[in-house]
Design brief:
It is a single chain. The protein is built from no helices and eleven strands. With 122 residues, it is mainly β. Strand 5 and strand 6 form a beta hairpin.
Length: 122
């Protein structure tokens, strides 16, 4: 049974940092790509970053380049999203998802977690 469980969200001040975790089970991480998406109230779901479990190749949305870093620990079946220099516009529910290719297009990802809330506010 494929499962993805996000954790690490919370309330942080602008300029602060958070590290999100995506714990996976039921499949071999090395054979998949794991992406982070986010959705703010009233907005469409947006691809944030994606990593290949096979070769570590990554892709980032322009809005987070230089601030967010995605990484994978295959021995722990976990993918991380380190978020630095957070801005109020980063406020959203963050989801991780599993797919077969490195991309930021949600329909390509068939398995999803339930999400974790990130709120950036003073």
């Amino acid at each position: 049974q494929v499962q993805l469980v996000e954790s690490g969200g919370g309330l942080v001040q602008p300029g602060g940092s958070l590290r999100l975790s995506c714990a996976t089970s039921g499949f071999t991480l090395a054979y998949y790509a794991i992406a982070w998406f986010r959705q703010a109230p009233g907005k469409e779901r947006e691809g944030v970053s994606c990593i290949s479990g096979n070769d570590g190749r990554t892709v980032y949305a322009d809005s987070v380049k230089g601030r967010f870093t995605i990484s994978s620990d295959n021995s722990k079946n976990t993918v991380y999203l380190q978020m630095n220099s957070l801005k109020p516009e980063d406020t959203a529910v963050y989801y991780c998802a599993a797919g077969s290719i490195v991309a930021l297009y949600a329909p390509l990802f068939g398995s999803w977690g339930r999400g974790t809330q990130v709120t950036v506010s003073s």
